[in-house]
Protein backbone atom coordinates (compact mmCIF):
# COMPACT_ATOMS: atom_id res chain seq x y z
CA UNK A 1 0.00 0.00 0.00
CA UNK A 2 1.49 3.34 -1.11
CA UNK A 3 0.64 6.52 0.82
CA UNK A 4 1.65 10.12 0.24
CA UNK A 5 2.70 11.68 3.54
CA UNK A 6 4.09 15.22 3.76
CA UNK A 7 5.48 15.24 0.26
CA UNK A 8 6.93 11.73 0.13
CA UNK A 9 5.68 8.32 -0.91
CA UNK A 10 5.42 5.71 1.84
CA UNK A 11 4.85 2.03 1.11
CA UNK A 12 3.33 0.37 4.18
CA UNK A 13 3.91 -3.21 5.26
CA UNK A 14 1.30 -5.51 6.83
CA UNK A 15 -1.63 -4.33 8.97
CA UNK A 16 -1.97 -0.58 9.57
CA UNK A 17 -1.85 -0.16 13.38
CA UNK A 18 -2.47 3.60 13.45
CA UNK A 19 -5.41 4.81 15.54
CA UNK A 20 -7.14 7.96 14.29
CA UNK A 21 -9.48 9.64 16.78
CA UNK A 22 -11.92 12.44 15.97
CA UNK A 23 -13.81 14.21 18.78
CA UNK A 24 -16.68 16.38 17.51
CA UNK A 25 -18.30 18.61 20.14
CA UNK A 26 -21.13 21.03 19.19
CA UNK A 27 -23.26 23.51 21.13
CA UNK A 28 -26.66 24.79 20.02
CA UNK A 29 -27.79 27.75 22.13
CA UNK A 30 -31.20 29.42 22.48
CA UNK A 31 -33.15 31.71 24.79
CA UNK A 32 -36.21 30.34 26.64
CA UNK A 33 -37.57 33.07 28.88
CA UNK A 34 -40.38 31.38 30.82
CA UNK A 35 -40.40 28.08 32.76
CA UNK A 36 -42.97 26.83 30.26
CA UNK A 37 -40.65 27.64 27.34
CA UNK A 38 -37.73 25.98 29.12
CA UNK A 39 -39.72 22.78 29.61
CA UNK A 40 -40.89 22.97 26.00
CA UNK A 41 -37.24 23.26 24.93
CA UNK A 42 -36.26 20.08 26.80
CA UNK A 43 -39.20 18.22 25.29
CA UNK A 44 -38.28 19.46 21.82
CA UNK A 45 -34.69 18.26 22.24
CA UNK A 46 -35.96 14.89 23.51
CA UNK A 47 -38.00 14.43 20.35
CA UNK A 48 -35.64 15.98 17.80
CA UNK A 49 -32.46 14.24 18.96
CA UNK A 50 -33.63 10.98 20.48
CA UNK A 51 -31.76 7.70 20.04
CA UNK A 52 -33.52 7.05 16.72
CA UNK A 53 -32.14 10.27 15.24
CA UNK A 54 -28.65 9.74 16.65
CA UNK A 55 -28.65 6.14 15.49
CA UNK A 56 -29.48 7.28 11.97
CA UNK A 57 -26.63 9.80 12.04
CA UNK A 58 -24.19 7.12 13.18
CA UNK A 59 -25.39 4.73 10.47
CA UNK A 60 -24.68 7.43 7.87
CA UNK A 61 -21.26 8.19 9.38
CA UNK A 62 -20.45 4.48 9.28
CA UNK A 63 -21.35 4.37 5.59
CA UNK A 64 -19.29 7.47 4.80
CA UNK A 65 -16.12 6.12 6.44
CA UNK A 66 -16.59 2.71 4.73
CA UNK A 67 -17.12 0.74 7.93
CA UNK A 68 -19.67 -2.08 8.16
CA UNK A 69 -22.62 -1.75 10.53
CA UNK A 70 -23.89 -5.02 11.99
CA UNK A 71 -26.29 -4.17 14.80
CA UNK A 72 -27.67 -1.27 16.84
CA UNK A 73 -29.33 -1.66 20.24
CA UNK A 74 -30.94 1.22 22.13
CA UNK A 75 -32.08 1.83 25.66
CA UNK A 76 -34.08 4.93 26.59
CA UNK A 77 -34.43 6.10 30.18
CA UNK A 78 -37.16 7.72 32.26
CA UNK A 79 -37.62 10.67 32.53
CA UNK A 80 -34.84 11.50 30.05
CA UNK A 81 -31.79 9.80 28.66
CA UNK A 82 -30.89 7.00 26.27
CA UNK A 83 -28.05 4.67 25.34
CA UNK A 84 -27.33 3.02 22.01
CA UNK A 85 -24.71 0.41 21.08
CA UNK A 86 -23.84 -0.16 17.42
CA UNK A 87 -21.66 -3.12 16.43
CA UNK A 88 -19.67 -2.98 13.21
CA UNK A 89 -17.27 -5.28 11.37
CA UNK A 90 -16.43 -6.37 7.84
CA UNK A 91 -19.81 -8.09 7.37
CA UNK A 92 -22.14 -5.97 5.22
CA UNK A 93 -25.27 -7.37 6.86
CA UNK A 94 -27.24 -4.85 8.92
CA UNK A 95 -29.25 -6.62 11.59
CA UNK A 96 -32.57 -5.42 12.96
CA UNK A 97 -32.40 -2.53 15.42
CA UNK A 98 -33.58 -3.27 18.94
CA UNK A 99 -35.44 -0.35 20.52
CA UNK A 100 -37.31 0.40 23.72
CA UNK A 101 -39.57 3.40 24.37
CA UNK A 102 -38.56 6.78 25.76
CA UNK A 103 -36.50 9.77 24.71
CA UNK A 104 -34.12 12.47 25.87
CA UNK A 105 -30.44 12.73 26.62
CA UNK A 106 -28.85 10.10 24.42
CA UNK A 107 -25.72 7.99 24.27
CA UNK A 108 -24.51 5.84 21.40
CA UNK A 109 -21.53 3.51 21.11
CA UNK A 110 -20.61 2.04 17.73
CA UNK A 111 -17.96 -0.68 17.54
CA UNK A 112 -15.90 -1.37 14.44
CA UNK A 113 -13.10 -3.92 14.14
CA UNK A 114 -10.74 -2.41 16.75
CA UNK A 115 -12.64 0.90 16.34
CA UNK A 116 -15.73 2.61 17.73
CA UNK A 117 -18.20 5.47 17.44
CA UNK A 118 -19.90 7.09 20.44
CA UNK A 119 -22.47 9.88 20.68
CA UNK A 120 -23.95 11.65 23.71
CA UNK A 121 -26.40 14.53 24.02
CA UNK A 122 -26.64 16.97 26.92
CA UNK A 123 -29.60 19.41 27.04
CA UNK A 124 -29.52 22.00 29.84
CA UNK A 125 -30.81 25.47 30.69
CA UNK A 126 -30.02 28.28 33.13
CA UNK A 127 -33.15 29.39 34.99
CA UNK A 128 -31.45 32.65 36.01
CA UNK A 129 -30.76 33.89 32.46
CA UNK A 130 -33.16 31.85 30.31
CA UNK A 131 -30.27 30.55 28.20
CA UNK A 132 -30.60 26.93 27.10
CA UNK A 133 -27.79 24.85 25.62
CA UNK A 134 -27.91 21.57 23.74
CA UNK A 135 -24.53 19.82 23.51
CA UNK A 136 -23.61 16.82 21.35
CA UNK A 137 -20.38 14.87 21.75
CA UNK A 138 -19.44 12.42 19.00
CA UNK A 139 -16.21 10.42 19.01
CA UNK A 140 -15.06 8.40 16.03
CA UNK A 141 -11.97 6.26 16.65
CA UNK A 142 -10.75 4.13 13.76
CA UNK A 143 -7.88 1.73 13.19
CA UNK A 144 -6.17 1.02 9.89
CA UNK A 145 -7.00 2.82 6.66
CA UNK A 146 -10.46 4.13 7.68
CA UNK A 147 -10.40 7.92 8.11
CA UNK A 148 -12.88 9.55 10.53
CA UNK A 149 -12.19 12.96 8.96
CA UNK A 150 -14.42 11.97 6.04
CA UNK A 151 -17.38 12.11 8.44
CA UNK A 152 -16.95 15.80 9.32
CA UNK A 153 -19.22 17.34 6.63
CA UNK A 154 -22.05 14.96 7.57
CA UNK A 155 -21.66 15.64 11.29
CA UNK A 156 -21.66 19.42 10.86
CA UNK A 157 -24.69 19.21 8.57
CA UNK A 158 -26.62 17.03 11.05
CA UNK A 159 -26.85 19.63 13.82
CA UNK A 160 -27.55 23.33 14.36
CA UNK A 161 -24.11 24.38 15.54
CA UNK A 162 -23.34 27.71 17.20
CA UNK A 163 -20.02 26.56 18.65
CA UNK A 164 -18.02 23.61 17.33
CA UNK A 165 -14.91 22.16 18.97
CA UNK A 166 -13.08 19.47 16.99
CA UNK A 167 -10.07 17.43 18.10
CA UNK A 168 -8.19 15.03 15.85
CA UNK A 169 -5.15 12.97 16.77
CA UNK A 170 -3.22 10.03 15.35
CA UNK A 171 -1.63 7.56 17.74
CA UNK A 172 0.47 4.40 17.51
CA UNK A 173 2.63 3.49 14.54
CA UNK A 174 2.76 1.16 11.58
CA UNK A 175 5.81 0.17 9.53
CA UNK A 176 6.97 0.67 5.98
CA UNK A 177 8.44 -2.11 3.85
CA UNK A 178 11.90 -1.41 5.29
CA UNK A 179 10.71 -1.79 8.87
CA UNK A 180 10.82 1.93 9.64
CA UNK A 181 8.07 3.27 11.92
CA UNK A 182 5.41 5.46 10.33
CA UNK A 183 3.47 7.65 12.80
CA UNK A 184 0.97 9.14 10.33
CA UNK A 185 -0.15 7.81 6.96
CA UNK A 186 -1.90 10.83 5.44
CA UNK A 187 -1.37 14.54 4.85
CA UNK A 188 -3.02 17.04 7.20
CA UNK A 189 -2.11 20.57 8.23
CA UNK A 190 -5.44 21.56 9.77
CA UNK A 191 -8.90 20.09 10.37
CA UNK A 192 -10.16 23.06 8.34
CA UNK A 193 -8.84 21.31 5.23
CA UNK A 194 -11.72 18.83 5.60
CA UNK A 195 -14.54 21.37 6.13
CA UNK A 196 -16.38 23.04 3.27
CA UNK A 197 -15.38 26.67 2.72
CA UNK A 198 -19.03 27.70 2.62
CA UNK A 199 -19.47 26.34 6.15
CA UNK A 200 -16.26 27.94 7.41
CA UNK A 201 -17.36 31.35 6.13
CA UNK A 202 -20.19 31.41 8.71
CA UNK A 203 -17.79 30.98 11.63
CA UNK A 204 -14.89 32.60 13.41
CA UNK A 205 -12.34 29.77 13.23
CA UNK A 206 -9.26 29.22 15.38
CA UNK A 207 -6.64 26.45 15.14
CA UNK A 208 -4.14 24.89 17.50
CA UNK A 209 -2.01 22.36 15.60
CA UNK A 210 0.99 20.43 16.92
CA UNK A 211 2.23 18.76 13.76
CA UNK A 212 5.17 17.09 15.48
CA UNK A 213 2.78 15.17 17.75
CA UNK A 214 -0.06 14.70 15.22
CA UNK A 215 -2.51 16.69 17.37
CA UNK A 216 -5.03 19.04 15.73
CA UNK A 217 -7.71 21.28 17.28
CA UNK A 218 -10.16 23.52 15.46
CA UNK A 219 -12.65 25.80 17.27
CA UNK A 220 -15.57 27.45 15.46
CA UNK A 221 -18.04 30.12 16.63
CA UNK A 222 -20.92 31.55 14.62
CA UNK A 223 -20.15 35.08 13.44
CA UNK A 224 -23.66 36.48 13.18
CA UNK A 225 -26.64 36.16 15.52
CA UNK A 226 -30.17 36.61 14.13
CA UNK A 227 -32.21 36.85 17.31
CA UNK A 228 -35.33 35.23 15.84
CA UNK A 229 -33.33 32.05 15.26
CA UNK A 230 -32.50 31.83 18.99
CA UNK A 231 -35.84 32.51 20.68
CA UNK A 232 -37.65 29.42 21.93
CA UNK A 233 -41.31 29.77 22.81
CA UNK A 234 -43.83 32.54 22.04
CA UNK A 235 -41.56 35.35 23.23
CA UNK A 236 -40.35 37.19 20.14
CA UNK A 237 -43.34 39.49 19.58
CA UNK A 238 -43.42 40.59 23.24
CA UNK A 239 -39.82 41.80 23.41
CA UNK A 240 -39.01 45.51 23.56
CA UNK A 241 -35.96 46.76 21.59
CA UNK A 242 -33.81 47.10 24.73
CA UNK A 243 -34.74 43.60 25.85
CA UNK A 244 -33.89 42.19 22.43
CA UNK A 245 -30.50 43.89 22.62
CA UNK A 246 -29.88 42.47 26.11
CA UNK A 247 -30.76 38.92 25.04
CA UNK A 248 -28.56 39.17 21.97
CA UNK A 249 -25.61 40.19 24.14
CA UNK A 250 -26.37 37.29 26.50
CA UNK A 251 -26.25 34.86 23.59
CA UNK A 252 -23.06 36.37 22.21
CA UNK A 253 -21.35 36.22 25.61
CA UNK A 254 -22.47 32.60 26.15
CA UNK A 255 -21.01 31.54 22.80
CA UNK A 256 -17.74 33.34 23.46
CA UNK A 257 -17.35 31.75 26.89
CA UNK A 258 -17.89 28.29 25.45
CA UNK A 259 -15.54 29.08 22.57
CA UNK A 260 -12.82 30.28 24.96
CA UNK A 261 -13.63 27.66 27.67
CA UNK A 262 -13.61 30.48 30.21
CA UNK A 263 -16.09 32.54 32.25
CA UNK A 264 -15.94 36.28 31.56
Question: How would you portray this structure in words?
Answer:
It is a single chain. By secondary structure, the chain is α+β, with helices and mostly antiparallel strands. It has a single domain (19-171, 228-260), classed as S-adenosylmethionine decarboxylase (4-Layer Sandwich). It is 22% helix and 38% strand. It has 5 helices and 13 strands. The strands form 2 sheets. A 9-stranded mixed sheet has the order 4-5-6-7-8-3-9-13-12. Strands 1-2-10-11 form a 4-stranded antiparallel sheet, with no helix packed on it. The radius of gyration is 21 Å and the shape is globular. The model is unreliable at 90-104 (pLDDT under 50).
Key phrases:
264 residues, alpha+beta, S-adenosylmethionine decarboxylase, 9-stranded mixed β-sheet, 4-stranded antiparallel β-sheet
Short synopsis of the structure:
The chain has helices spanning 35-48, 51-64, 152-158, 197-200, 241-260, and strands spanning 2-5, 8-13, 19-31, 69-76, 82-88, 106-112, 115-125, 131-143, 163-171, 174-176, 181-182, 203-210, 215-222.
The level of helicity is: 10-25%
Query: Any idea how many domains?
Result: 1
Q: Rg, please? A: 21 Å
What's the CATH C level? Alpha Beta
Biggest sheet, spatial arrangement of strands: 4-5-6-7-8-3-9-13-12
How many helical elements? 5
Strand content: 35-45%
As for the CATH topology, it is S-adenosylmethionine decarboxylase
Low-confidence stretches: 90-104
Q: Provide the CATH architecture.
A: 4-Layer Sandwich
Biggest beta sheet attributes: 9 strands, mixed
Average pLDDT confidence is 81
Oligomer: single chain
How many strand units?
13
CATH-level-4 superfamily name: S-adenosylmethionine decarboxylase
Distance from first to last alpha carbon: 51 Å
Secondary-structure element pattern, one letter each: EEEHHEEEEEHEEEHEEH
Amino acid sequence: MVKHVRGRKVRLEGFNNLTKSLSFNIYDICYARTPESQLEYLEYIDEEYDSDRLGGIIEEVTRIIDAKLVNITTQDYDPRGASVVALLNEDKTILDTIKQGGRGESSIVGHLDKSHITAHTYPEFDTATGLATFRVDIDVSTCGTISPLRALPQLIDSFDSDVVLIDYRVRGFTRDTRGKKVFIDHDINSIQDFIDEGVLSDYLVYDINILSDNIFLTKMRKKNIRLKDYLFGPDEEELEPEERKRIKELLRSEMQEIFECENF
